[in-house]
Design a protein that fits this description.
The chain is mainly alpha-helical and 130 residues long. The chain has two helices and two strands; from the N terminus they run H-E-E-H. The longest helix has 43 residues.
Amino acid sequence: MQGNLPPEAQEKLEELQDLQETAQQVAAQKQQAETQLQESQTALDELDDIDEDSTMYREVGELLVKTDYAEAVEDLEEKVDELEIRTETLEKQEERVREQFEDLQSELQQMLGGGGGPGGAPGPGGAGGA
């Protein structure tokens, strides 16, 4: 069907496909950020149950490095704050992409003559002239 479309409609269809790909990428990034946020919040909550004098380690690349309680709490709180902002930003971006997609889809339907809804138009030969 794409080969029979007017050039403007073909261009809009390609934009729609690009937007759909962008929406999938944003959704994946958002899911990843939400997962990291949940893990960081869980870790922060677990620190409440740990004695502040306990020996603690944090992962740095492939190494475990000794850290103290206050530093671990501070690092996790900072990470949670950053991930909350990232998640909110991705939610806004996801909404903008969704709106652009819907607008473009509507433009494409109008371009292709989708003025009336299915079944709403009268059949051929409905209007006669005298």
